[in-house]
Write a structure and sequence with these properties.
Helices cover 33% and strands 25% of the residues. It contains eleven helices and 13 strands. It has a six-stranded antiparallel sheet, sandwiched between helices. A five-stranded antiparallel sheet has the order 11-10-1-13-12. Strands 3-4 form a two-stranded antiparallel sheet. The longest helix has 19 residues, at 2-20. It starts with a helix and ends in an 11-residue tail after the last helix. Bound molecules: zinc ion. The site of zinc ion (ZN) has 8 residues, from loops.
Length: 330
């Protein structure tokens, strides 16, 4: 049934093509990677790195301070040693970061100072423990001071840094925008530790607070009053919902999304105006395999692949997922 509907569509196109002198029987497609969308995926992190950068670049570097908060490996009265996982769970349950921002703000206000908006980023130590980077605006750019910071964060090591110049600030946040973590250590900072890979999502990578927008103070991932603060939202795509991070990352790019290209130029040739895209859904063909087919890349569209109608039909018949949602049927 599916084959018929696509076939008749392509025949129709072929008719139009023939009238306009198109190469007969050739169809152009745009093929895109279906990413897993995880903020911790080494491939998909680009998007979250971009969003983090966008939040960071709004801060006034002259008033911004860079605070690092990490954890003692021993916690509690009895000197209990927590695993990185238990530490994470406890921090989310007890809202450690929330408390830090709230208490620091209060302490500063006591001294007649103001804690402004900020952005936080979660990173990892090689032993599976998290730490936080908090970039926050103050009223005047003066040191907040370790006396105050360590009074408010009693859970471990604290550090306060400043930005020497606009260039320095841009270099630091540029690194975040590119890699998703701050420079200075190794790549493991942005990679989930082993224990976290077996979890089914939910670990938030960054958030912001105190941001003013449309006359309201907005926060994301912090102080928003909801219970899932500091955690990542569940994946939108059903397919990934019940997967662990590891499974999800492994599945990243294993499917592709295919669009038929309906355009004015000749199929099989490059054209500035690539035309309209008709969504043909997800196909069970890894994106990398398409790349072996074609190296034609069109900005704004993606990888362009030209195959014959018959090849298209055969591939669609075999690899296209959920053809029942065919938007060309009927
Ligand atoms: Zn991914």
């Amino acid at each position: 049934m599916f084959q018929e509907s696509v076939s008749s569509f392509l025949d129709k196109k072929a008719c139009v093509s023939n009238q306009k002198g198109y190469k007969e029987g050739l169809v152009d497609m745009v093929v895109r990677k279906v990413g897993c969308g995880s903020v911790w995926c080494s491939v998909c992190k680009k998007r979250v790195a971009y969003r983090m950068h966008r939040e960071l670049e709004q801060l006034d570097w002259e008033r911004a301070r860079h605070i690092v908060l990490s954890y003692k490996r021993v916690d509690g009265e009895g000197g209990e040693r927590l695993s990185g996982e238990l530490n994470y769970e406890r921090s989310v349950k007890e809202k450690h970061l929330n408390a830090f921002i709230r208490d620091l703000r209060r302490e500063m206000e006591r001294e007649g100072r103001v804690l402004g908006r900020g952005v936080w980023v979660r990173e990892w130590h090689p032993d599976g423990y998290q730490h936080f980077h908090v970039i926050v605006e103050t009223d005047n750019g003066d040191m907040i001071g370790n006396r105050l910071i360590s009074k408010v964060w009693r859970r471990g090591f604290t550090d306060e840094r400043y930005f020497k110049s606009k260039q320095h600030f841009q270099r630091v946040i540029g690194y975040v925008g590119k890699n998703g973590y701050f420079a200075g250590e190794k790549g493991h900072q942005g990679e989930l530790p082993e224990w976290a890979l077996s979890r089914k999502g939910g670990i938030r990578r960054y958030g912001y607070f105190g941001k003013e927008k449309d006359g309201k103070v907005k926060s994301y991932g912090l102080e928003d009053g909801s219970d899932d603060h500091e955690t990542e939202k569940k994946p939108k795509m059903d397919r990934f919902k019940d997967m662990t991070y590891k499974q999800r990352h492994d599945a990243c790019g294993s499917l592709s999304r295919v669009f038929l290209l309906v355009h004015q130029g000749k199929a099989g040739n490059d054209t500035d105006d690539a035309g309209d895209m008709v969504d043909m859904g997800e196909w069970d063909i890894p994106y990398n395999q398409w790349k072996e087919y074609s190296d034609r890349y069109q900005p704004r569209y993606g990888l362009i692949v030209s195959i014959t109608n018959m090849e298209y039909i055969a591939l669609a018949d075999r690899y296209r997922l959920n053809p029942e949602s065919d938007n060309l049927a009927g």
